């Protein structure tokens, strides 16, 4: 009876934390722009270039705009994991909010879970927007292997949030987390194919990039979009990175 009595307030408090964090997230225009609008804006800009709407033999006959839809999907995840979530959590640590929460029925882990859930939902909305804009504005086909695409998408979200959690774990202040996130952001964009799709990279470079979390995710999403089941190696690479980064974040994380 006492267990039930204690569990109910804790569950209520967790819901209150999630509601409060969601309201705060909606009031942060920078986070919403980076996750929801920046990838879509990039897709619109690239798709407006006539050469990007012509078939490219080096890409297997698809257009560059077709290849960039999975890239912009990943871009929203990278922005959420590296630039939006870390400053929020490190800010809570810096101001002592996590320490104070440890004395309440809600453990600090509830706050972390709420942030990861909110950002995970936001990047999924961003992915849906990119797919919708690609289809409606530039006649990009929707993923032909839906289940494979969803699997690759979920794994990519997991690895992006896990990478962000590592930044949260290692950074002591908001300024440091922003600096680390920015430094990691640009290489992540490169491996995801923002400047050059993985399919267009020289073979040696492509093989190296495919061993990175976002390079492998880009290939898995591209394969599923073309109607093929994502390569097992690519899925395993993304999953392995997600597990390794999550373990590292759990080991290094400090509440104070």
TrEMBL record:
Pfam families: ABC2_membrane (PF01061)
Matching InterPro entries: ABC-2_transporter, ABC2_TM, ABC2_TM_bact-type, ABC_2_transport
GO biological process: response to antibiotic
Record domain ABC transmembrane type-2: where: 30-256
Keywords: Antibiotic resistance, Cell membrane, Membrane, Transmembrane, Transmembrane helix, Transport
GO cellular component terms, semicolon-separated: ATP-binding cassette (ABC) transporter complex
Bilayer topology term: Multi-pass membrane protein
Membrane found in the keyword field: yes
PROSITE patterns with a match to the protein in the record: ABC_TM2
Source organism superkingdom: Bacteria
Places the protein is found: Cell membrane; Membrane
Spans traversing the lipid bilayer: 32-52, 67-89, 110-134, 146-169, 176-196, 233-253
A single GO molecular function term of this UniProt record: ABC-type transporter activity
Keyword Cell membrane: yes
Family the UniProt entry places it in: Belongs to the ABC-2 integral membrane protein family.
Name of this protein: Transport permease protein
């Amino acid at each position: 009876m006492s267990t039930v009595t204690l569990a109910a307030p804790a569950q209520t408090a967790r819901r209150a934390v999630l509601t409060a964090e969601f309201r705060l997230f909606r009031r942060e225009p920078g986070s919403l722009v980076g996750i929801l609008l920046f990838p879509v804006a990039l897709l619109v800009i690239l798709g407006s270039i006539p050469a990007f709407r012509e078939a490219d033999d080096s890409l297997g006959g698809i257009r560059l705009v077709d290849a960039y839809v999975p890239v912009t999907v990943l871009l929203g995840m990278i922005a959420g994991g590296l630039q939006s979530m870390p400053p929020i959590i490190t800010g809570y640590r810096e101001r002592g909010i996590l320490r104070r929460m440890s004395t309440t029925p809600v453990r600090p882990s509830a706050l972390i879970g709420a942030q990861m859930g909110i950002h995970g939902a936001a990047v999924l909305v961003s992915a849906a927007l990119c797919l919708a804009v690609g289809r409606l504005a530039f006649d990009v086909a929707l993923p032909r292997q839906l289940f494979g695409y969803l699997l690759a998408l979920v794994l990519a979200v997991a690895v992006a949030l896990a990478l962000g959690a590592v930044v949260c774990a290692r950074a002591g202040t908001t300024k440091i987390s922003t600096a680390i996130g920015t430094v990691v952001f640009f290489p992540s964009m490169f491996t995801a194919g923002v400047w050059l799709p993985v399919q267009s990279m020289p073979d040696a470079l492509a093989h190296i990039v495919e061993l990175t979390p976002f390079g492998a995710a880009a290939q898995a999403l591209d394969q599923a979009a073309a109607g093929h089941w994502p390569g097992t190696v690519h899925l395993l690479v993304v999953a392995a990175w997600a597990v390794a980064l999550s373990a590292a974040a759990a080991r290094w994380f400090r509440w104070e």
